[in-house]
Amino acid sequence: MAAVIRPLPHHDPFVDVTRGYITAVADGFADRGVRLADVWLDPSGPRDATFVLGLKALVWNESDGFVLGEFVSGEPGVRTVLRDPVRLGGGVLADPREVAERLAAPAGGAPRRLRSFADGHDGFEDALARCGRR
């Protein structure tokens, strides 16, 4: 089993709400032996998180779901830049236990908006909270 690397708490409570889900995804990586170099919660508008996987990175955001690409730049508090990004698939809140498996066969195609992060009444917050409690 790979070492468990988890995101640190974020100073903004609105961003920190995503930590449970992102932690569940990181735990899924560890359970499947995926080596994770780092993970952090990024800014909001949309809220996102970065998983650094060596030369590649996986970025999750609340509008597009997961996108995989070559890591160009990024750090906590600064949006991550990827080269040649492709959709991982699985939707905005892919099952945390399945994200690591999707790394081997991404859905492909350019990232696309799956929901608007500005829509505060679409049930996303409740679904996000449930994902973090699995």
Protein model, in words:
With about 130 residues, the chain is an alpha+beta fold. It has one domain (about 15-130). The chain contains four helices and five strands. A five-stranded antiparallel β-sheet has the order 1-2-3-4-5, covered by helices on one side. A hairpin with a 2-residue loop joins strand 2 (about 50-55) and strand 3. The longest helix has 13 residues, at about 20-30. The chain is globular. The chain starts with 12 loop residues before the first helix and ends with a helix.
Summarize the structure.
The chain has about 130 residues and is an alpha+beta fold. Helix content is about 20%, strand content about 30%.
Helices and strands, with pairings:
Layout: H1 13-16, H2 19-31, E1 38-41, E2 48-53, E3 56-61, E4 65-75, E5 78-87, H3 99-102, H4 124-132
Helix pairs in contact: 2-4
Pfam families: DUF6292 (PF19809)
Domain DUF6292: 21-104
Protein name: DUF6292 domain-containing protein
Regions with little confidence, pLDDT below 50 for 5+ residues: none
Number of domains: 1
List SSEs in N-to-C order. Answer: HHEEEEEHH
> What level of helicity do the residues show?
10-25%
Strands ordered across the widest β-sheet: 1-2-3-4-5
Sum up the structure in keywords:
134 residues, alpha+beta, 4 helices, 5 strands, 28% strand, DUF6292, DUF6292 domain-containing protein
